[in-house]
Amino acid sequence: MNAENTTPTIAIVGAGVIGLSWARLADAHGWTVAITDPRPDLAEIVAAAFPDSATVRAAADLADAVSDADLVQENGPERLPMKQQLFADIGAAARGDAVLATSSSSITASEIAVDLDADVAARVLVGHPFNPPELMPLVEVLPGTRTASTTTDGAVALYRALDREPVVIGTELPGFVANRLQAAISREARYLVQTGVVSPADLDTILRNSLGLRWATIGLFEGNVLGGGPGGIRHLLAGVGAQTGGIEPGVPATDPDAMERLVDAVEATYGTGEEVYAELAARRDRRTRAVLAALADTDGESTTR
Length: 305
Ligand SMILES: NC(=O)c1ccc[n+]([C@@H]2O[C@H](COP(=O)([O-])OP(=O)(O)OC[C@H]3O[C@@H](n4cnc5c(N)ncnc54)[C@H](O)[C@@H]3O)[C@@H](O)[C@H]2O)c1
Known about the structure:
Number of domains: 2
Protein name: 3-hydroxyacyl-CoA dehydrogenase
Keywords: Oxidoreductase
Order of helices and strands: EHEHEHEHEHHEEHEHHHHHHH
Helix content: 40-55%
CATH class of the largest domain: Alpha Beta
Radius of gyration: 21 Å
CATH superfamily of the largest domain: NAD(P)-binding Rossmann-like Domain
Distance between the termini: 26 Å
InterPro entries: 3-OHacyl-CoA_DH_CS, 3-OHacyl-CoA_DH_NAD-bd, 3HC_DH_C, 6-PGluconate_DH-like_C_sf, 6PGD_dom2, NAD(P)-bd_dom_sf
Bound molecules: nicotinamide-adenine-dinucleotide
Domain 3-hydroxyacyl-CoA dehydrogenase C-terminal: 175-278
Mean pLDDT: 94
Pathway: Lipid metabolism; butanoate metabolism
Structural class: alpha/beta
Shape: globular
């Protein structure tokens, strides 16, 4: 943080879905925000997204955006050569004590930093949010093999200052943790729809009214403890668990025709296009805020812990 500033400065690199959401989160926390993106309509996008903010600006270029940042949050396209080049450029222009984070869902800090100078590589890590980061508290923090522990500590502190819930993951495995869990459930969901057991709409109804609601309040293992009654997880595994433990996971068809039919069925359920996206996103955000507010109301500060 700059000595003269009382709140941090964030550079948002890439003003797409994730970058603009990080920008809204930082703006809501009173941070100074500089946004960079090569798209020619960047100034219009920033003006439209932040009509009343004196502390959010469209930067002239990448160097201008990152030069004063405490946290650089990169949200460019998910392509390794592009991120490698971006971080070389970011490293050349950013302050020596800035945390250099990528929102990447799949590319690791070790891959990005492979050709970077040691002092830059030491400050690169993954800070992977769940969409949209302005509402979803989780940030998976994955340091690479060359990341300094002070960088990881600094990133955790900065994300906490944004009221996020950072979790440091020590192993750089594909999909990290949250998306691996999502992939496991998605596999079974696709199998159940493809084999005609449920429609896409019914599958979503089942999820929202059971696991979704459960997992908004307590975690999976905490749920196991409660599922076993006073005997806890041991009782659960010996009782109901002994019966359900033998469920064979389904294998969804992944050939192009089967995937096309699945996509058609989901599109027929929810629709497609700009208007549908805006409506569904607004509904998602309203409902997510309602759940978060209800949890904060009932639990106070420790809701997401
Ligand atoms: N969409 C999600 O659900 C989600 C969730 C978590 C993480 N992520 C990660 O966030 C990152 C961004 O994803 P997104 O969904 O916001 O993509 P997006 O396509 O909405 O936005 C990408 C933006 O990057 C810009 N860009 C292109 N080249 C650039 C450059 N050289 N410098 C700066 N910006 C550049 C594009 O103009 C575009 O505005 C990806 O790494 C992705 O893996 C996405």
